[in-house]
Write a structure and sequence with these properties.
Its main location: membrane. One of its GO terms (molecular function) is zinc ion binding. Keywords: Membrane, Metal-binding, Transmembrane, Transmembrane helix, Zinc, Zinc-finger. The chain has 176 residues and is an alpha+beta fold. It has helices spanning 9-21, 46-50, 117-136, 164-167, and strands spanning 31-36, 54-65, 72-87, 90-97, 100-101, 110-111, 113-114. Strands 1-4-3-2-7 form a five-stranded mixed β-sheet, with helices on both faces. A two-stranded antiparallel ribbon has the order 5-6. The longest helix has 20 residues, at 117-136. The protein starts with 8 loop residues before the first helix and ends in a 9-residue tail after the last helix. The model is unreliable at 143-153 (pLDDT under 50).
């Protein structure tokens, strides 16, 4: 299993800062920050839209560990929701990782996902491409970050009854 089964906000923050500082992914002179919310949804109110908020959902490969029985599993269908906006010279990204319930426990507890460094970077590169397009008017480069190689070959069907994002009507994974 590649990557940790532990949720590490610091990995996301550090990778985001590296992309901004070292790789100049959003090289427009604005100050961007990444924060976390474990309750946000993907629906924006009219007022939020007027204030410039946008959303982006990313389907990622993650590892999960049941908080009840400690069972560990991998999933190529972990949803990550980003809300972002640029106001003046300040950009804000608020991220929410969605969990999955354990197939063995059925106790309505969602395990938060852990991700490899590569998967975090891939998700954040796709986010930066969306920000460049929607906040700076740059062309969206669909190849940036690309879809992970495993996304074309989803080995198992999506188990929507175990998916936290599905339970809230947010999941973008389609049944095949």
């Amino acid at each position: 299993m590649k990557g940790s089964a532990e949720w590490l906000p610091s990995l996301w923050k550090e990778t985001f800062e590296e992309l901004l500082d070292d790789d100049n992914e959003l090289d427009h002179g604005d100050q961007w920050t990444l924060n976390f919310s474990y309750t946000q949804g993907d629906t924006l109110t009219t007022e939020e839209r007027k204030r410039g908020w946008k959303t982006f959902c990313h389907c990622a490969f993650g590892n999960l560990k049941c908080p009840s029985c400690s069972k560990v599993w991998s999933s190529a269908k972990v949803m990550v929701l980003f809300r972002y906006r640029l106001r003046g010279e300040r950009g804000v990204v608020i991220m929410r990782p969605f969990g999955q319930a354990c197939r063995s426990c059925h106790d309505d507890t969602y395990a938060r996902p852990g991700f490899s460094e590569e998967e975090v970077e891939r998700a954040l590169l796709r986010l930066c491409a969306k920000i460049r397009k929607n906040c700076y008017g740059e062309m969206d480069d669909n190849d940036v970050g690309g879809e992970p190689p495993h996304s074309k070959n989803n080995f198992k069907p999506h188990e929507s009854d175990l998916c936290e994002a599905c339970s809230q009507g947010i999941c973008r994974v389609k049944e095949e």
